[in-house]
């Protein structure tokens, strides 16, 4: 007994001595933590921003519908090119000038996505859009060559064939009565990405009620119900810190709703079986499988996540861009007539589908597309998380801050784009672009983490007549995917129909979650072009 007593006494004294020894270390760690937190708060508070409340920060300011939320974020930008807001205890720095944007986008250090993107993981997994660190780096390296492959020219056939299906559908609606064209365009873009990425046609255009065509409605911001009202579960969760933990979210009714919606979405994905050798054309999935065979660390989940990511990133953005282009054309009849005349001149009235080189010749269409992407960037904000301190426009921003790049506000900066609300495609003529900051216009983002499908020089002029080889050379094959796709579809629509937008610019309401959308859809009137094979003749001008 006496031996036992002395052993426990020995243990106790050892523990208390260790605690005494550890106490200063623990205290130092705690103080270090408090110092870092206080320093972070102090640095962030140097930035202009709305007044916040203890603990909740500006959360109450953000509890509004998403149309109002976007307006409020724009208002925060009015306070300064570099401003701040708090979501609970999370600091956000919001930047909207070219110089500030350059600091982040041009850096190879600030390439990690912010925490906000993890909310997309239940849907998109850890693909290129949502991953960070080593995983992002290896996958980006693996997938980039897919966009340099010569298959791009082959894809033009898919673009034009799907555009023809779209035109056939639109003929039945081209009677001058208003309708929402948004979903028609989206389904066409969805068919294109499935055929090009998966090597398999899903015919969403013909079967718009199919599960895949409906998309995960409570998650995808462009799915029809969420274009009309409400927020996606993702944005809802973003501004409710008590739902941030996966555990708490899963237990909530919202988590259960998300799971139900994902379960429905996963099934059709599983059903679109890739059929090797079905087409001579090589799809991204072929390339992905080919590269993954070379790298045994690539798992089936990695492949699934990249396919989901490409399906989403490859169609929601292009369909938003094409819808905004039609909105712009429908609001600017003079520009539309010029585009139409250019299409007629290039195709010389032939009824045939345009080739890749025909599409490349359509320079005015390109200028209009570029101006559309300025006025209505499909991805209106990009968020990065600083892994180390940064200096942005003389402000010290501490590591751990999420930096919101407000692309929409950047593109409306009057210093870079005089009379920024005006639709003026000539701004992008080379002689009018020379003095512009190179980070004033970033619809495809920029730097190491830019859009993988970004045309290197989106709006190119004839290299023989161009003044600067770097600015106006043709992009290498493979970086033209989105440009060729959009031109093929828009050219097919505009040569057959005249478009009129129903909602004037002053009444237009913007919805901005991950994608910038017109609230209530894209309401247009279509009129068949005389001689344009657009259905009934004579209705158009
Ligand atoms: C008009 C069309 C498009 C626009 C405006 C656009 C814009 C963007 C932007 C702004 C980003 C950066 C997002 C961020 O950092 O949060 C991005 C990334 C990405 N885009 Fe696009 N995109 C378009 C078309 C496409 C297409 C057609 C594909 C695929 C076929 C695609 C695939 C991707 C991927 C995989 C990423 C993630 C890149 C990375 O993080 O490494 N995009 N896109």
Describe the structure.
The protein has a single domain, classed as Cytochrome P450 (Cytochrome p450). Helices cover about 50% and strands about 10% of the residues. The longest helix is centred in the first third of the chain and has 44 residues. Helix 8 packs antiparallel against helix 15. The chain is α+β, with helices and mostly antiparallel strands and about 550 residues long. Bound molecules: protoporphyrin IX containing FE. Protoporphyrin IX containing FE (HEM) binds next to helix 15 and helix 22.
Using brief descriptors, characterize the structure shown:
single chain, 541 residues, alpha+beta, Cytochrome p450, 4-stranded mixed β-sheet, 3-stranded antiparallel β-sheet, 22 helices, 11 strands, globular, disordered C terminus, binds protoporphyrin IX containing FE, Cyt_P450, metal-binding, iron ion binding
């Amino acid at each position: 007994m006496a031996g036992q007593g002395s052993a426990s006494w020995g243990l106790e004294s050892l523990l208390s001595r260790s605690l005494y020894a550890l106490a200063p270390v623990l205290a130092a760690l705690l103080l270090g933590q408090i110092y870092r937190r206080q320093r972070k708060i102090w640095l962030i508070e140097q930035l202009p921003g709305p007044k916040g409340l203890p603990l909740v920060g500006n959360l109450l300011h953000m509890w509004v519908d998403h149309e109002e939320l976007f307006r409020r974020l724009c208002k925060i930008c009015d306070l300064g090119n570099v401003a701040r807001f708090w979501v609970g205890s999370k600091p956000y720095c919001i930047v909207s000038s070219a110089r500030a944007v350059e600091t982040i986008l041009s850096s190879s250090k600030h390439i990690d996505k912010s925490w906000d993107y993890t909310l997309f993981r239940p849907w998109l997994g850890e693909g290129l859009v949502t991953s960070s660190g080593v995983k992002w780096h290896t996958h980006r390296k693996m997938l980039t060559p897919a966009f340099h492959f010569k298959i791009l020219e082959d894809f033009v056939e898919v673009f034009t064939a799907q555009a023809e299906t779209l035109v056939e559908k639109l003929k039945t609606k081209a009677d001058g009565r208003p309708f929402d064209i948004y979903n028609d365009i989206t389904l066409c873009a969805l068919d294109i990405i499935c055929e090009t990425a998966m090597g398999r046609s899903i015919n969403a255009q013909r079967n718009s009620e199919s599960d895949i065509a409906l998309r995960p409605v409570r998650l995808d911001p462009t799915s029809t119900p969420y274009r009309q009202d409400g927020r996606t579960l993702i944005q809802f969760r973003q501004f409710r810190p008590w739902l941030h933990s996966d555990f708490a979210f899963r237990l909530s009714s919202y988590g259960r709703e998300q799971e139900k919606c994902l379960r429905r979405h996963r099934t059709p994905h599983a059903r679109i079986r890739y059929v090797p050798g079905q087409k001579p054309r090589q799809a991204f999935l072929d390339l992905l499988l080919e590269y993954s065979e070379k790298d045994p660390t690539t798992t089936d989940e990695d492949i699934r996540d990249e396919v989901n990511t490409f399906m989403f990133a490859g169609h929601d953005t292009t369909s938003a861009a094409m819808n905004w282009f039609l909105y712009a054309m429908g609001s600017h009849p003079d520009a539309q007539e010029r585009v139409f005349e250019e299409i007629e001149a290039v195709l010389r009235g032939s009824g045939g589908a345009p080739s890749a080189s025909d599409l490349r010749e359509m320079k005015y269409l390109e200028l209009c597309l570029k101006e559309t992407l300025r006025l209505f960037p499909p991805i209106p904000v990009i968020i990065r998380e600083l892994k180390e301190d940064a200096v942005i426009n003389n402000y010290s921003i501490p590591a751990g801050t999420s930096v919101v790049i407000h692309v929409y506000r950047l593109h409306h900066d009057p210093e870079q784009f005089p009379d920024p609300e005006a639709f003026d495609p000539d701004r992008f003529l080379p002689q009018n672009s020379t003095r512009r900051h190179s980070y004033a216009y970033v619809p495809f983002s920029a730097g190491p983490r830019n859009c993988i499908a970004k045309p290197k020089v989106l709006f190119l002029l004839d290299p023989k007549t161009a003044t600067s080889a770097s600015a106006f050379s043709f992009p290498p094959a493979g970086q033209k995917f989105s440009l060729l796709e959009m031109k093929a579809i828009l050219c097919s629509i505009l040569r057959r129909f005249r478009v009129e937008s129903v909602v004037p610019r002053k009444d237009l309401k913007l919805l901005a979650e991950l994608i910038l959308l017109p609230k209530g859809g894209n309401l247009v009137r279509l009129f068949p072009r005389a001689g344009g094979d657009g259905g009934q003749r004579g209705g158009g001008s």
